[in-house]
Amino acid sequence: xxxxLLIARRELSGYLTSPLGYVVIAGLLxxxxxxxxALAMKGEQSSHxxxxxxxxxxxxxxxxxxxxxxxxxxxxxKQTGTYLLLQAAPVSEVQLVLGKFLGGLSFMTVFLxxxxxxxxxxxxxxxxxxxxxxxxxxxxxLEGSAVIAIGTFASTISSNQLLSAVIAAIVVVALFVCWLIxxxxxGALGDAIAYLDFYDRHFRSLSKGVLKLSTVTYFLSLTxxxxxxATLVLTARRWRA
Length: 241
What we know:
By secondary structure, this protein is mainly alpha-helical. It has one domain. It has 13 helices and no strands. The longest helix is centred in the last third of the chain and has 28 residues, at 213-240. The protein starts with a helix and ends with a helix.
């Protein structure tokens, strides 16, 4: 556990000392704030509806953040030539993947914390439930965890950060549009594809403050699958080396 935390701290330090990390997080916060003020706060709406729209838009920005935050995890090591040293380190593949993943998730938590002023603005001008806020942010953290796990896997199979981001983005976008594919497929296959849908089947309820066990299971399963896939890739490459 100590080694995992050391790797996570090293990764988080890399985010915090990199100008690119601040540029990305500032850009996402600006766009998220613009969407909140220009779209979520538009017109006469109840506080519950405004908060639901906030989580709707933030869901998209968390997906983008997860892709951008995770693209460097292993791909940067390959670009800078430190990947071989990483493979030779006295840590297991599981520890390495978990440490990198927790570093990316920690930076995602920083991003989410910086968005908290927007729900507070809703509270100043209206009345919202703390339970709604908690469930919404819990859902965003679950979503971020799943996207970063997918990005971790993409980073292990990519030779550079751009390719890693493209692969992760394709997978995430595919999960977001599963509802569209499912609407054109009948039967059990259509139901299975619909269940994979990122937003309409799962995050929509969280954005409304409704916590479902099936939704938590879905996001945790995606996280587990992504991390397992990344671990298998690292194990295969270490054996070949």
